């Protein structure tokens, strides 16, 4: 399959169309004229009026005719389309109006962070980059999910495991929500790193999966910094877990993911897994 990195002009056009089409004219106090509306959402002229730009400008943006809107125009479009904060950041990325970090993308764990991952035991912890590549993990995380060391490097990727690993793909009780949130986060990373060919190839591989392709086409954007998961573990049973994602200031391409139990039963299950991980490590 042919792979490509982000085409900002085409993606900007598609994103603006999908965000416009999801809006309800009634929410803006606009005349509904529903019988004369052939497509859902706001008309282009309505978005143009709300954003303070010309209709022709909106048409050219949505037809990917090479425009690069200014930061002021991007902000006006974000307000007009009522974008959520993560969607707004995505729009700024597509318009190339957000400052970029020109540093080298992380493919290995920064040594201080790798030590921190180990030091945070007995909490299950792993370190990832923006592609969801798993760069470091502790024994507790390996016991909770899988022994990452037994996997080839190409499979040490959180999204790959969720989509394709024969056991882990069924761990999450609310699988669709977990996959959807992961895709929304990955789309934000895709726009923020438009020249990352490895990421583009990874997404191309994932889009051969029908579930991923369907959700990817919806263009949801959401950076998930914390949340909860219910995991059905083959040895420990049902675990209710909270996760926190931290970004180090000095290594902003790396993300520290920390899991904690949400109730006593889940904590007892984590303790059992932690004990088995400790025995395995000796």
From TrEMBL:
InterPro entries: Cro/C1-type_HTH (IPR001387), Lambda_DNA-bd_dom_sf (IPR010982), MLTR_LBD (IPR041413). SMART domains: HTH_XRE. GO terms for molecular function: DNA binding. Residues 41-88 form the HTH cro/C1-type domain. PANTHER family: BLL4672 PROTEIN, BLL4672 PROTEIN-RELATED. This is XRE family transcriptional regulator.
